[in-house]
Amino acid sequence: MELGKLITDIQPVEIMGRLDIEIENIVYDSRQVKEGSLFICIEGFKRDGHDFIDKAVQNGAKAILIEKELDNYLPDITFIRVEDSREAMSYLAATFYNYPLKKLNLIGVTGTNGKTTTTYLIKAILERAGIKTGLIGTINNIIAEKTLPATRTTPESLDLYQIFTSMVEAGITHVVMEVSSHALDLKRVMGMDFLISVFTNITQDHLDYHKSIDEYLRAKSRLFKQLRKDGFAIINIDDVHSESIIKAARGNLFTYAVEKEGDLQAVDVELSPRGASFTVKGEREFGINLKLTGLFNVYNALAAISCGVVLGLNDREIKEGLEGVEGVAGRFELIDEGQDFAVVVDYAHTPDGMENVLKTALEFAQGNIIVVFGCGGDRDRGKRPLMGQIAARYGDLSVLTSDNPRSEDPLAIIMDIEAGIQDLDINAPYEVKPDRREAINYAINRAGKGDMVIIFGKGHETYQIFKDKTISFDDREVAREALKSRIKGERK
Questions:
Q1: Model's pTM, two decimal places?
Q2: Three-class SS state of 134
Q3: For residue range 232-262, what is the model confidence (pLDDT) as tens digits?
Q4: CATH of 3-96, one of 3.40.1390.10, 3.40.50.300, 3.30.1380.10, 3.40.50.360
């Protein structure tokens, strides 16, 4: 595309150079630059794209988008300066990829907990109704029959438009996607209009980035300002912060709840180790038998049902779509090797998420609950003692270990968790096992008949991040290995 045409939807502060040049592709990583690229300089948390301009030019960039004034401008290279590179990138991507969102209906799901499961449930309902649906989220991105690994919950805007274009080419009409608070604050979904925006809940998380719950809430609320005029804001009104979201929302309002009377309400809720059943009341009335357990999954299902209702799907399509979902990777995932106790792997890494899972576990566990968890390094430190206290209150034994310590000392993170446990006025047994494999093995070997071992924090992840390396690590595989080893040893 000619550069002059490419920049029609942005407002440059300054243009230095020719606009009658052909741009072959757009990138924000200098390593991906090739002949004829437009290189967008993004100021990141650790690196600044402006520092890689020379590298981009060496690799063949013909134009550079910047947001900072430079001391030197290179000859024969066009420089375009804007107020905000991230914002401009979204509009440039839309233009370059010929506005794929004109052919797609976006459904965005935001909230602290439940985003991933809710998106999978929505996708299942829509596909049962014959609607070809793509998915973008934490575990992976799904385009028709193709599943691509995800590197972040919500990709950068340029990557999103590449995905949207592939979805249009695959005949997809609806896209359900997780929208993180970081993505909203960093303008990754800038200029994208949503048919449906879903709010699950807000609890403490990411305060290392947002600094306060109010700031975190403001970031989440932006999704509801991006609704189409014919769009729907689907809100969990049981959440204490729902009023703030409702005030921010455009379009039509549709509510769901368990405790309150929303447009949809779940009543007669029954939970078992293998699932949850409830009756939907309100605008529709029918029964649901989920293969997912926990009250938190009842909320996730209500959010998905609400999407089906506002899209005009019938009760049978909604019911069969939901009831066909066997599970979601790393979300209360049972690891069964024939042992006489339960082992669960769950992605929960916030105080509220952990508490929700442990409340569910208390209803089923016949014996002791053994909790294995750590906290991520370079992330919200304030939640560490809170998670220690929740594990101690609900569990019979806590095994403190490493999550993704990143640049921090694993033992220093564990000490933050310990501080919360030690502040309690209750007897709260715990063990410190910094090596995560050792911690999982220890917990599984300590478990007795009827006990439940819950391994928190990493869920579907298949790696562990340290200061100087990233290693392969899957809680589910490690747990299976530990179970097989224990069973083999018991048979000798």
A1: 0.93
A2: strand
A3: 999 999 999 999 999 999 999 999 999 999 9
A4: 3.40.1390.10
